[in-house]
Amino acid sequence: MALTTHVSQVDKTQTPYKLDPDQTLRASQALLKHVQAELKRLQESGGKRNLLATENSDEEDEEDDAQPIWLTLGTKQYITDKHRLKPSKIPVPHSLNSNENSTICLITTDPQRAVKNVVADPAFPSSLASRITRIIGFSKLLARYKSYEQKRQLLSEHDVFLADERIVSMLPKALGKVFYKGTAKRPIPINMAPKDASKDKSKRLPKDEREAVVAGPAAIAKEIEKALNSVPVSLSPGYNIAVRVGLDSFSPDQLKDNIAVAATAIIEKHVVSGWKNVKSIHIKSPTSVALPIWLAEDLWMEKPTGPAIETASEKTKDSEAETTGIKRKRKQNTTRGAQSGERKKTRLADEKAKDKEDGAARKARLSAQKASAFETD
Fold first, then answer.
1. Confidence at residue 253, expressed as pLDDT on a 0 to 100 scale
2. How far is CA 353 from CA 224, 341, 350, in A?
3. pLDDT tens for residues 230-241?
4. Are residues 82 and 121 in the same domain?
5. Terminal CA-CA length for the chain
6. Do residues 91 and 110 share a domain?
7. 3-state DSSP: the chain helix, strand, coil percent, rounded to 5?
8. Structural Rg of the chain based on CA atoms
9. Peptide bond preceding 189: is omega within 30 degrees of 0, i.e. cis?
10. Which pLDDT tens digit goes with each residue over 167-190?
């Protein structure tokens, strides 16, 4: 079924740097209609629903009852993120993890007993505790899940992975490409440390009696709920940002609300220069084309602003310099003023003229010596 939508004209009396709610709603309606029609076609033809799985994830990694809706944001200039190993979270009005039957795996600091005690505490919400099917410390994660198949099995056993933000930057090496080749089940960081962690005296205990410094049941439960009601944003160096903002079970209004909140938060938090650096915003499903909901009139910026932006050519030069072991000189700020270039040109011209004068005088002196030598003969 063909998807049809159009880009609404921007009101010239208002700023173009915002989403049009009507356009977002029309695109959401068209996309969800296409997804449902495609699902019906597959069911009638005897196809399986997991054929809609994304290219970046395994078939068994996708939920059986819902398929993701992606928001893709294109930028005009190259964007890098120094903290890309620690994804950020954007709270959305409609959670993608509201299914009560979905399971949660908690990855904690060592030892894991402290977190297990917190989850078993009567003050911890029972509805949330029933969804947490595994709590594993970082050391046991490294010891038990070494092979590719073991990590793949862990991935298939749980729907959501949450990790203590103190160790989340070490998980890519521990979990490998099984978890990180896609974004669907990357561990979401949560803050498990108490506010007064620096005053904790457990570090004075023997190592075998020491427990991890974690917050109380209410604080950890609040962090988990916050993570479940948010969408994670994992940036890769480039010109595009892709974030899951909905499911095909959403209504058009629910999808529209999530898109508006997620797009605004991504631009404010991750895109240097904000809306001026945004080239396009689209939404898509795993089997559809990308539907535009916002397109910029200017396709480029005059010059980069901010330390987080660099051109692709500069990135290529940096990588070549690193591989060859040659340190490329970078331009340094100068305090000589705007006329430093003109003074340099003038100095070089004076030196060149002086060299010419010295050469002419030398030739004249040699000619005089020759003439006097002939006269002597």
1. 95
2. 76, 19, 5
3. 999 888 788 888
4. no
5. 108
6. no
7. 45, 15, 40
8. 31
9. no
10. 998 998 899 888 888 777 889 999
